[in-house]
Amino acid sequence: MRRLSFLQGWWIPLLFVAGTAVAGSWQSGPDRDVLHTAGIRSLTPWILDVIRAEEGIRPQMDWSRPDAPDWEEVARLAASRPTLSGPELILETQHAVVHYTLEGEDAVAEDLVTTAADAIEYVWTREITQMGYPAPLPDDGRGGSDKYDFYFTKQFMTYGYTSGEAAVDDNSRPSYIALATWMGVEETQVTVSHEFFHALHMTMDYKEPTWWLEETATWMEDMVYDDINDYYNYIPQAFNNPETPIDDNSNIVYAYAIYPRSLSERFGVDIIRDIWFATSASPDPEALFYNAQVVESYGADWPTTIHYFRESMLDLDRYEEGDAYAAEVGEVDMSGTFNTYPGNAEGTLTHTAAHMVEFLPPSGYGTLQIDFGGGHDLIASVFAEVARGDFEEIATDTPVGGSKVFTVDGFGDTYDRVVMVVTQTALDGETTYDFSFDTLDWTDGGSTDPSGCSISGRTSSRSGAGTALSALFVLGIGLAATRRRTRR
Ligand SMILES: [Ca+2]
Ligand SMILES: [Ca+2]
Ligand SMILES: [Ca+2]
Ligand SMILES: [Zn+2]
């Protein structure tokens, strides 16, 4: 499903008549890219910032970014349940009450209310009965009963939000959900599955970091509605930024649904619940720590697990839906490209992030040798492209922190592209490392002086020992550019 094509016909005019509703004033101009990859999808993380601030917890969202909502508006929104623009009607299900109106700006099509009611019970069965998450807390009769409340409200571009109410202990709150009236059937289904998982987060531990709430809520969409695949719309941002850590709270959180997905495909869907349960035992925000702990309780070790995830971004066959990812994103962005030998370079990687270092043969063929120097918490491995877009691991992982000399025979002959994946596997900190590379036993069919080194779209023609610091030194700049792009 392409949300944009659905929206495009009519939401732009609406944007200009906006002004009375809560959302009208905080959206920047309509922009195809903004909605797809960098727009505000949901107000939930912003509301959480406001709620947590009452308890002295520092905001996690970037409130200075151009499409950020206004703090006061969000605070007003979070302060009370919606008051609908016309007479309030309800549709009651086994576990929930849907509040809506047919009049005024909050008016919604009754078919959509029925769709939502059906989705709510389906999602409840999936997330609570089948997957074992705890039900939302009773809300002291608000909305007419202790059943969970959904409200259809006029919203612009956002799909819905979950708002927590007065805390009942040090990390649990009852909540309610507001759904946007503009949505179609699939948007409603995906939004109910996503936002309702936030309701369960409120039950477990609303103080966990935004990245973990959003990555798992987006992951959950596909656990409930496997065939809708709305998350495909977001994943390019992850594949464009492998140098961004998995606990970054920027808009990449939706794209990084592929991270919990990597865990659940390897270890089973329960691992995500086990991490949630482990970290909900205390109000401390410890999601990343418990990701590592729980992975290890499953008998794997954390460093190779996070490296496996980064390798999977290149070797998409490891994902159940990898063919679809390839169709959506092509392939992961290269962090640097080398095609001049010998050479050497340096890189700096932050925790849980990866570099994809590409080697292309000069004319001729022979052996590629990569002397990877290693560094604190690093793991590296080497892949070759065996068919277009199809990568295979041809040299296994270094030990954590260890160095290794990788040799690839048939470079320029059997293999026209070789990629070294380097992951910083720690839970915090960063590591600077270096590596050198050369071609050995070379048979050159023509040119004797292959040259030209392309680095993240830049070129460097420095030669000899002077090529030190070439490519991945530039990565520092690349990362900054990436962040700017993320927050546009
Ligand atoms: Ca209620
Ligand atoms: Ca799917
Ligand atoms: Ca916790
Ligand atoms: Zn969310």
Descriptive overview:
The chain has 15 helices and 16 strands. With 488 residues, the protein is an alpha+beta fold. The structure holds calcium ion (CA) (3 copies) and zinc ion. One calcium ion is lined by residues 222, 226, 229, 321.
Largest sheet: 5 strands, mixed
Which structural class do the helices and strands define? alpha+beta
Radius of gyration: 25 Å
Task: Tell me, briefly, the overall form.
Answer: elongated
Give the strand line-up of the largest sheet. 1-2-3-5-4
Count of β-strands: 16
DSSP helix count? 15
In helices, the fraction of residues equals 25-40%
The N- and C-terminal alpha carbons lie at a distance of 24 Å
Bound small-molecule species:
calcium ion, zinc ion
Mean pLDDT, all residues: 86
Fraction in beta strands: 15-25%
In the predicted model, the low-confidence regions spanning at least 5 consecutive residues are 1-38, 448-488
Tally the structural domains: 2
Task: Give the SSE map.
Layout: H1 3-17, H2 32-38, H3 44-53, H4 71-79, E1 89-92, E2 96-100, H5 110-130, E3 148-153, E4 160-164, E5 175-180, H6 185-205, H7 210-224, H8 236-239, H9 252-255, H10 258-267, H11 270-280, H12 287-297, H13 302-314, H14 322-329, E6 336-338, E7 343-350, E8 354-359, E9 365-372, E10 378-387, E11 390-395, E12 404-411, E13 418-424, E14 430-443, E15 453-455, E16 458-460, H15 471-486
Helix pairs in contact: 3-4, 5-6, 6-7, 11-12
Bound molecules: calcium ion (3 copies) and zinc ion (ZN).
What does this entry show, briefly?
The chain has 488 residues and is of the alpha+beta class. It is 36% helix and 21% strand.
